[in-house]
Predict the 3D structure of the following.
Amino acid sequence: MLFGLAVSVTSCFDSKSPNYQFFPNMYQSVGYETYAESDAFNGENQLKGQTAQVPPQGSIKRGFEIYDYENSTAGYELAKLNLKSPLDSISEKEAAKGKELYGIYCAICHGEQGNGKGKLVEREKFLGVPSYADRPVTEGSVFHVITYGLNSMGSHANQLSQHERWLVTDYVLQLKSKL
Amino acid sequence: MKKVGNHNSISRILKFSLALMLTFSIQLFAQDAVTPAPDAAATATPAPSATGDAAAGKALFNAQCAACHKLDAKMTGPALRGVGDKYEKEWLYKWIRNSADLIKSGDERANKVFNEFNKSPMTAFPQLSNADIDNIIAYTMEPVPAPAAVAAVPGGDQGSVQSGGISNEVILGALALVLAMLVVMLFLVNNVLTRIAKANGLEVAKSEKSLPIWKAFAKNQFLVLVTVIFFLLSSAYFVYGWFMQVGVDQGYEPIQPIHYSHRIHAGENGIDCKYCHSAARESKHSNIPSLNVCMNCHKNISEVAESTATPEYSKAFYDGEIQKLYDAVGWDKANQKYTGKTQPVKWVRIHNLPDLVYFNHAQHVTVGGIECQTCHGPVEEMEIMKQHSPLTMGWCINCHRETEVKLKDNEYYKKIHEELSKKYGVEKLTAAQMGGLECGKCHY
């Protein structure tokens, strides 16, 4: 009987659906939650029924600096020639951060040394990633490419803030000089 | 003495022979299980041998061209299989060394290709010699490899794994059968013996009828009391256990709209957690990556490698899941273009902290420097993502009590840290000693 009881109690738990809660109205307040479905947004020009909305057109993120070069071949050439890093001196701590960010976002393809031999390349998931030594990159072009992407590389502007992109750019050039 | 029973009963002979057969069959099966694997390995000979030229060309192609070109599919640039038939070599030399010049010179074919692929210029390769380019062309002229040869290898592996499982089951089943037969035999022997006894005129001693056990039990009041107490305590134990797991979702693994495998991405390919969940570095919430992050890689990777497939999930299954991503993000694989027709993906949220508690990812990930796996478990081994930790208050507090705060290189709080150390008489402070147990830290 005990065994039967134990089975009947434990077998109720289904890992595919969430468990019961004691006081659901304390667990889920009235306000909408990040990434949740919600009736709060049902107006025109809104994505219906979800809290993840696209920002209104023309709105600018706090701390955002306008980037003047357009996402085209001409923009790339201009950035390569003219764009200069606004960071005049980088502290040791910031440099370490640049290295860490490079490790997270770039090394998986470009390799820890920037030689184009990251783990995805070694495993032949991604091919043809060039070594930094083989490409005539400048700080402007590196920043431009992180921002917009180039060919097979996608944009990383939503993962890295502008300041962080400049830190990574600096680290990329350090790697290039060592190759 | 009388002859009793039928010693040569057919049923017994049958059973005995069955038992005999089974004992042998186990060995037979075990042998069968081993044999197919080497056969399969022998048939899977390596792909057709390549000429020296094409092999060198492949290395060059993978290093220089593969960033924008695939052999059989459009990418940033056109598919290159059979490119040597479409253009003569002299033209290709010029194009590869400096395509911009060729376009400027007004060459018709050059301009056509340039316009067809969104006017994205091809990197110039002045470092490639004529011989290098010949090698690459030789590689692109190779015929499409027959898929059968490739498929044989994983098939062989699967066979051996499966037959291993079967042989185990067969052995267990045979053992169970043997056991059942022993029981039957015991019963039969008992029958025979009683019949012999009867035939010999012996009376089998009958046991005296005593008080039924439950009546005896009911008469003994002390035993009844002990049992009742035992029942009450044990049911209280189970009821308490049941109440304590209400609201705890440990092990919750919902079915997601797209089967995303953390095992492949974070485990095998070693992509950093924060590549996709980048907001965990500096925000209260760790983000569910938007689909453009998926497309950073999957624009290029439209199908999984043969070696990625497992016995449980086939290559066709994984490719189908990537197609789901393309449908959601509106990516036209054939033309390498976004169609603009998108649809949101309804991911199911797994970790639901109650609203009565505050939790900040950035504080733990960036400031505390805690590994994601500390709370989320071995995500890099999970084919299906699930909640690893109970996320109860006791669990939070336990970690705050044990975790030592990194005091090094933190000049700003140096004085406070020193005073706290003196107060508690310790070298290293835990999160709890810095106020990590105060109610208001997490509940307000």
